[in-house]
Structures are given as C-alpha cells and as structure tokens.
Amino acid sequence: AAAAALVLLLLPLLAAVAPAGAAGPGNATEEAWAAFKERFNRTTQNATEEATRFGLFNASYAAIEAHNANAASAFTLQLYEWADWTAEELAASRAGLVPSTLTLETLSEPWAAANGSVPPLDPEEAPTQLDWRCSYSNPKGVAAVTPVKDQGSCGSCWAHASGAAAEGRTAVADSVLLDLSVQEIVDCNNAGWGCAGGTIEAALQWFSSSGLETSFDYPLTNKDLAPCQYNVTQVVASGEGLLFSQYSEEVLMAMLLEVGPVVAAIQADCAYFMYYDGGIITEDCTDSCALLDHAITVVGYGYDEDEDLDYWIIKNSWGTGWGEDGYARI
Q: Within 10 A of 183 (CB to CB), how many other CB atoms are there?
C-alpha cells in the first residue's frame, strides 16, 4: 500500500515538471527517427523490423549527437540514409574494397614501387597547398578531377576511386580532363570483380592493359549484371606503368605532386567517416590496416590556419550530399 501511494503521489509531480508531449531524451530520439523515416521514405514491414531499425538508428544518432556536442572537435557529423543499416548492409553497398595482395616485396609488371620511381620529395620546394580540382592550385596548371559520382547500392568504390585516379593521370599527362567509364571497370575487369567488391589493382590493371572509354559512351548503371560492352575503338585513355606504395605520407605527397590524384585504401566502417559532415577528421578508426575496407582518391592537401591542422583532400563516391560536396579533409 505504501508503494502504491508513493507512485500515485509521484505521477502528479512528474506531470507538473514534464507535461505530456515534452521532449526528453527518449522523445528527442523518437522525433529524430520519425523525421529520418520521412526524409528517406523509410518503411518497415512489422513491429520486429521497426524495433530493429530503430535500435540501429538510435546507436547512430547517439554517436553523432555525442560527437557534435564536443565544441573542440575539428569536424562535425550528420545523419545519412544508412543510419539504420546493419554493418553487413553498409559493407555491401557503401564500401566494397577487397584487401590487396600487393606488397613492396612481391611487385611485378606492370607494377613498380613509387619510392624510386617518383622524384624524392623536397620539403623546401613542395607547395604548402595542392588541389587537383582547380587548375590554379597545382604545379601543372590543369584541372584533373571530374564531378563526384555516387556508387549507389553497388560495392564499387574500388572502381570509382581507381577511375578517378586514371582521370587525373590522363589530365596531368595530356592536359585534357576526361570523364572515364567506371562501369566499364566494373563490367570488364579481368578478375571478375563487380558490385560485390573488388581490388584496386584489378581496376588499374584494366586501365593499363585495355584502356577506358568515356562515361558518355559507357554510362554508369551501378549494376554488374550486364555483360562487358567494351569497344576498343572508343577507348580514349590508358596508362603504362603502375606505382605502388605502403604507409608513407611522404611518398603520397611526392606522388600527388608528380603524377596527380592517387587512389588509396582507408577504413570507412566507423562513425567518424560514415557520418562525416564537414571539417577536418582528426580521429582514428583503428590502428589495424587489416580493416581497410574502402577506396577513395586523394586529390590534394592543405593547411587550415584556424585549426592549425594539415590535411589531405579526398574524393569519395557517395554523391555530393556526403561530406563537403562529396569530399572530405583528413
């Protein structure tokens, strides 16, 4: 009886402090969930799926809110359509990089070690800023980056990032910026990779051996069900000699200066990258290179005076709605 009386006494007090409909932590998350479902036209089939998706969303939302509450952070996060996806769904559609088998000790044609093939970096002569997106921001005076693409639900980051590097190399070498076909790489690479994932080396080896058509002649579909439609008479770009490096920022900078945009492997399956909104990413996902699951293209570097931070500029393949118009600074 005493317990019942206590509950009855508390209810009016709680009603006075927090009237029905007031926004507490739970209500804020539920309101964000409702807005998220409306924004991305999300529906669930039953109560079980609703609970599962809400649980996934809640974890993403909490991580984003906690990070953004830190005013000292150099970057911010935001919600994207994959906030209620499982890790498997994310890996299948937003990543797709299969671990490389290349090592500096086992390189063979057409590969060569970048260290030794590219002139050593002279820190005194290297520019403090480099951006291959703009002709006035690099030593060659050419724009070498095409508009950001979206890989959709196809795990083809390996093809997108490699295609962007091929575009950059062609622009730097020939002073002509061509939008090359990513779909050709997905459909035609000799290793048989597709939307279920692939390697950077397979993509670049196709570019080196067979060349690429333009995306106008071989348009992007984000599917890998169609047979290869390669037409050698429409090839507009190819490259001889492929350079490889591991874990060296000095070599990366030298390659950017000498060759142009560089394809690289990173870890993307953490909140800092998946939900990146803008600024300079300063947090590490993990110290394990075994977890490199996503391919991107490094298109420049710079220095932010306000944050007192150096950064790399990367081009992603998740559309212009992600990050800083499809790019990130790391």
A: 23
- Catalytic choice (157, 188, 195, 285): 157
Beta bridge partners of 312: 301
Known catalytic residue at 316: yes
Question: Is 157 an annotated catalytic residue?
Answer: yes
Which are the contacts of 271, defined by CB distance < 8 A and separation ≥ 6? 60, 63, 64, 67, 77
Both structure tokens of 3: 């317990």
Enumerate helices (H) and strands (E) in the chain, giving the number of each: 10, 9
Instruction: Name the catalytic one among 188, 195, 285, 294.
Output: 294
Interatomic CA distance for residues 143 and 133, integer angstroms: 5
DSSP codes of every residue in 140-169 = T-----PPP-B-TTS--HHHHHHHHHHHHH
Q: Which CATH class is domain 130-329?
A: alpha beta
Domain ranges of the chain: 30-92, 130-329
Least confident range of 14-28, 63-77, 110-124, 138-152 = 14-28
For 64-117, how does the pLDDT look when each residue is reduced to its tens digit (9 = 90+)?
999 999 999 999 999 999 999 998 898 888 889 998 888 777 777 778 888 767
Angle (CA) 145-148-149 rounded to 5° is 125
Average pLDDT over residues 196-205: 94
Type of residue found at 58: N
pLDDT at residue 30 above 90?
A: yes
pLDDT tens sequence across 281-308: 998 776 555 578 999 999 999 999 999 9
Neighbours of 142 (CB within 10 A): 18
**pLDDT tier at 158 (50, 70, 90 boundaries)?**
very high
CATH fold, domain 30-92, is Helix Hairpins (1.10.287)
Rounding to the nearest 10 degrees, give the CA dihedral for residues 101, 106, 108, 112.
90
